[in-house]
Amino acid sequence: xxxxxYQGKELLAKYGVPVPKGQVADSPEQAFEAAxxxxxxxxxxxxxxxxxxxxxxxxxxxKSPEEAxxxxxxxxxxxxxxxxxxxxxRIDQVLVEEALAIEKEYYIGITTDRTTQRNVFIVSSQxxxxxxxxxxxxPDAIGRLPVDPFLGVRDFAIRRVAVQxxxxxxxxxxxxxxxxxxxDAYVENDATLAEINPLVVTKDGTLIAGDAKxxxxxxxxxxxxxxxAYAEVSEESHEYEKEARRRGISNYVxxxxxxxxxxxxxxxxxxxxxxxxxxxxxPADFLDIGGGxxxxxxxxxMELVLSDPNVRGVLFNIFGGITxxxxxxxxxxxxxxxxxxRVPIVVRLAGTNAEEGLELLNTTDLIPAATMQxxxxxxVSLVGND
Length: 386
Ligand code: GDP
Ligand code: MN
Known about the structure:
The chain has helices at residues 5-14, 28-38, 53-56, 65-75, 131-137, 155-164, 172-188, 225-234, 239-246, 266-278, 295-306, 325-337, 354-361, 372-383; strands at residues 22-25, 42-47, 59-62, 79-82, 87-90, 93-98, 102-113, 118-124, 142-147, 191-202, 207-209, 213-216, 252-254, 259-263, 285-287, 313-320, 345-351, 367-369. By secondary structure, it is α+β, with helices and mostly antiparallel strands.
C-alpha cells in the first residue's frame, strides 16, 4: 500500500522528522484558505500515488492565496500524465505547504534489498527530481548500505553511507537523526519503502523533508489497522477491491467475469479459476477466505461478491483440512441464509468430514459437487455463456 505524501509526512513527523507546515485541500477554496492561513509563499502539490509529480506539472509555487486557488482549480478533478505510472492519474487532493527556501536537495531512502536480504540505506547529495537519472548515469554518486538487522543503525554505518553519497562531512551529524527516524518508521510500520526526496537543505542550513514516499507491505496491514483508512482512498484499485478492504477482506481481486469464486487457500482458488475458464466460464473474482470459513466471513464474502451485478452464479470450493467440512457447510448455509441470494451457488467440498458436509447441503438450495471439475462445469452451465 502506497501512502500519499501528506500521510507519509504525518507518519515521519511522529518520528521526529521536521516537515513543512501544511494542509490538505480537495477544493480550490480550501486551497485558498490553507494558503491564507499559512501566509506568504506556499507550494501546492498534487496528491497522487506516483512519483515525478514535479515533472508532470503537479507541483507549483504560489505567491498568494489566489495563485494557490487558481493552480488547485487547474489540476483538481483533472488528469495529469505521469511518466512513472505511464498513464494519466486524476488529482483529487492537493497539499498546500509553506514554501521552502531551497539551497540543496538530498535524497535519503530505505528499502528491502533481495540480494543482500537486508534493509538498505540509499543516500545521495544529488537528490531532487533527477535522482533516477543520477542513479543511471552516475551510480557512484549514490551511497548504498545494507543494515545489519541485529546491530541496527550504527553511527559508523551512517557516516559511511553519507560519505559514499557525497554528503559534506560537516552536515553528517545533522543528517544522522533523519536516517535513524526513517529507519525506525520503516521497521516499525512494516514498510517496503521509505524515502525522503528531496531532503531539503534550506538557505539557512537546516534540513527538512520536502517530500515523503512510504509504502507498507500489504501482508502486514492487519498489524496496522490505522492504515486501512489510507488504503481505502489511496489504492488505484477497483471499487470492489476497495470495498473488500473496508470489510476487512484482504485476499480479494476483481476479475470482471460473471462467476463469483470463493475458496479457502490461494492455490485452491487459483486452480478453481483455471477450471472455470476451462469449462468456458469467466471468473468474476479471486477470493480466498482462508481457513475457518465461519458463517460471518462467508456472509461478508458472499455479500461482497454479489454486490457486483454481473455475478450470475457463485462457486464455493472448500477443502476441509483442519477445518472440518461439516463446519464449513454450516458456515455457508448460515451465511447464505441471511442474504437474499438470487443466483445459483455450487459448493464443492472435499477433505475432512466432506460427506457430512455434503449431507447438510442436500437440505438446502445449494448445489453440491463432488469434484472441482464437476463444480466448474455445473456453475458454467447454470450461468450460461452470455
Ligand atoms: P515528486 O516530483 O513527485 O517527487 O514531488 P516533490 O515533492 O519531490 O517535488 C518536486 C520538486 O518540487 C522538488 O524536487 C523541488 O525542487 C520542487 N520545489 C520547489 N519549491 C518547493 C517547495 O517549497 N517545497 C517542496 N517540497 N518542493 C519544492
Ligand atoms: Mn519527490
